[in-house]
Amino acid sequence: MQLDDRSLNILFREARTHTVWQDRPVSDDSLHRLYDLMKWGPTSANCCPARLVFVRSKEAKQRLLPAMDPGNQEKTRTAPVTAIVAHDYEFYEKLPRLYPHADARSWFAGNQPVIDTTAFRNGTLQGAYLILAARALGLDAGPMSGFNNDMVDKEFFAGTKVRSNFVVNLGYGDASKLHPRSPRLAFDEAARIL
Amino acid sequence: MQLDDRSLNILFREARTHTVWQDRPVSDDSLHRLYDLMKWGPTSANCCPARLVFVRSKEAKQRLLPAMDPGNQEKTRTAPVTAIVAHDYEFYEKLPRLYPHADARSWFAGNQPVIDTTAFRNGTLQGAYLILAARALGLDAGPMSGFNNDMVDKEFFAGTKVRSNFVVNLGYGDASKLHPRSPRLAFDEAARIL
């Protein structure tokens, strides 16, 4: 079973990072459908460390904008939704439910280097699942890491062990504003078969 | 434009992490098609730090197996291909070509904390693109982080600034050997809308 060419184009070949947005809202229902897809992507020991804040209201956007790099403020202000992709450094407390086959909590608790790497790696994987799930549902995505993580964490995650990773603008992009696509590395530059 | 339900099932809802593999090879052509899809996934400043080693021959597998955790050795031995997902900490040297609009190299060169975070975050995103691209092309994936990264790096990336991140078994899984699926967090446990 595989996807047809049209679907591969939507997900990969013709998908672009958008920065100019149509004035068209994204509903609660769309965000729930988005989560209900991306949640199935695999993580190590099913640890599911990603935590998401969908910043949509004007009031919430005003809390986010000062943390964005100057070049990322206008696209974030005008995006229908900006998803903050974060991860919970206490993810392992949920493992008795998420991974009931073994005492997976004990693999992490007290081992901070493993907690840190696992949270960042798997939260990032889930961020990529979010980007591709958005495209699969007909949304455009604009991922960005150009912002002040500490400011976002103070504003949105104070008093928790959740920390921001990157953000993804979501909505319906204006394709007429896209620049020509940048090149990618050839197979032999990025990969080898042994 | 969005994907139909069948495609969403293949990518997310019905896709599983496989550990038992059919004796059915994965061709060079399949690996090239896989790379030619996943390469389009977005990375920060188009930095494309992921480097892949597709470990397929018996000889190459013998170099990899001692680094795997005991519980991951048999599934890695029997997988038609094991992709080592790594990232190049000198990725920024390719930015004059990958991001020709600005002097993006200067944003990274000499700034090791930014290099480290960017390489790990974006290399991981590309690893997620690899997993979903494999599923889109009809392959099953079995991602794993249970191995000794230093041993893999010494064996496959000596003398370079490339370091391993995680590995992904690729092939055609035996669905009869799957366990029941583990639960995921509910929307309200992992996300909020502001």
Q: Explain this structure to me?
A:
2 copies of one chain form a homodimer. The radius of gyration of chain A is 18 Å and the shape is globular. Chain A is built from 9 helices and 5 strands, in the order H-H-E-H-H-E-H-H-H-E-H-E-H-E. Chain A has helices spanning 5-13, 28-38, 58-64, 70-78, 95-98, 105-108, 112-136, 149-156, 187-190; strands at 50-55, 81-88, 140-144, 162-171, 191-193. The longest helix of chain A is centred in the middle third of the chain and has 25 residues, at 112-136. Chain A is an alpha+beta fold. Helix content of chain A is 42%, strand content 16%. The first copy, chain A, has a 4-stranded antiparallel sheet with strand order 1-2-4-3, sandwiched between helices. Chains A and B meet through helix 1, helix 2, strand 1, helix 7 and strand 3 of A and helix 1, helix 2, strand 1, helix 6 and strand 3 of B. Strand 5 (191-193) of chain A pairs parallel with strand 1 of chain B, so a sheet runs across the interface.
